[in-house]
Write a structure and sequence with these properties.
This protein is an alpha+beta fold. It has one domain: Super Roll (Bactericidal permeability-increasing protein, domain 1). It is about 25% helix and about 25% strand. Strands 1-4-6-5-7-8-9 form a 7-stranded antiparallel β-sheet, covered by helices on one side. It has a 5-stranded mixed β-sheet with strand order 2-3-12-10-11. A hairpin with a 3-residue loop joins strand 8 and strand 9. Helix 3 packs across helix 6. It starts with a strand and ends in a 5-residue tail after the last helix. About 45% of the residues are buried. The N terminus is likely disordered.
Length: about 210
C-alpha cells in the first residue's frame, strides 16, 4: 500500500455546546462559528480564536503557501470508502472532502462516493465549485478539530498536523440527526453543514493568499 499525503442566515444549535451544531446560513463562510470550535481552532493555530470558515480557509492557505493544489490532497492506492471518478478514472482518498476539493480543481464533472460513520452510502456529482448534486438530498457533512489539538503542536502547525487534527472529523452523513448523534460521541469541536454547499469551503481553499 502506498499513500500520497502532503497535508494529512440562521444558526440552529444542538442541546449542548459539545454535541455538535448544524449551521445553515445564506453565506456560511461568513457565519460566526460556535464559541468552542472558534477557541479550539484558535489555540491550535496559535491565535486567540478563528471566528469564521473564511478565516479558517485563509489559515490553511497560509500553511501551504498559497491555494490548495492536487498534490496537497491525501490520495491513496488503498481501496477506501472515499473516492472520486474524474474522466473515467477512480481516485481514492483518506478523507472524503478531498474528493470535493478535487472537483473544485477540475473543469469536468466529478462523481463522489463516501460512507457515513454509520455505513450509509452518500454520493454526489460536482462540477467545479458551482454545482454539487447530492444523494440523499438531506445529507450533511461535518468539519471539526480535535479537542486537544493545541497540545500536539507549538502554535505553528504544519499541513500534516492540520490533517491529523481535522481529517478524522470531516465526515458525510445522510441527515442532520445522524450527524448530531455522531458528534455527541467524538472528542472534537464540530459543526454540521448541508452537503450540497460543501463546494463553498473548497472554493475558499483555492483563493490566492492575500
Amino acid at each position: 500500500m502506498t499513500e500520497h499525503c502532503s497535508c494529512c442566515g440562521t444558526v440552529t444549535e444542538s442541546q449542548t455546546e459539545s454535541a455538535g451544531r448544524n449551521l445553515t446560513a445564506e453565506n456560511p463562510l461568513q457565519a460566526e462559528l460556535p464559541a468552542e470550535m472558534s477557541a479550539t481552532l484558535g489555540q491550535f493555530l496559535g491565535r486567540e480564536s478563528v471566528t469564521t470558515f473564511d478565516e479558517w480557509a485563509a489559515e490553511i492557505r497560509q500553511t501551504v503557501g498559497g491555494s490548495i493544489a492536487v498534490e496537497d490532497l491525501c490520495s491513496t492506492e488503498e481501496r477506501t470508502a472515499h473516492w472520486a471518478v474524474r474522466d473515467g478514472e477512480r481516485q481514492y482518498f483518506l478523507c472524503f472532502y478531498d474528493a470535493v476539493i478535487l472537483a473544485a480543481l477540475s473543469e469536468q464533472s466529478v462523481e463522489i462516493h463516501t460512507k457515513s460513520p454509520g455505513g450509509t452510502v452518500i454520493e454526489a456529482r460536482a462540477v467545479g465549485t458551482d454545482t454539487l448534486e447530492v444523494t440523499p438530498k438531506e445529507a450533511v457533512f461535518s468539519l471539526g478539530v480535535e479537542e486537544n489539538a493545541a497540545n500536539l503542536v507549538d502554535g505553528n502547525p504544519t499541513l500534516e498536523d492540520a490533517y491529523g487534527a481535522v481529517c478524522p472529523y470531516v465526515k458525510a452523513f445522510p441527515n442532520a440527526d445522524s450527524y448530531r448523534e455522531w458528534a455527541e460521541a467524538v472528542p472534537a469541536a464540530t459543526i454540521g453543514l448541508e452537503l450540497d454547499g460543501a463546494t463553498e469551503f473548497a472554493a475558499a481553499l483555492l483563493e490566492d493568499v492575500q
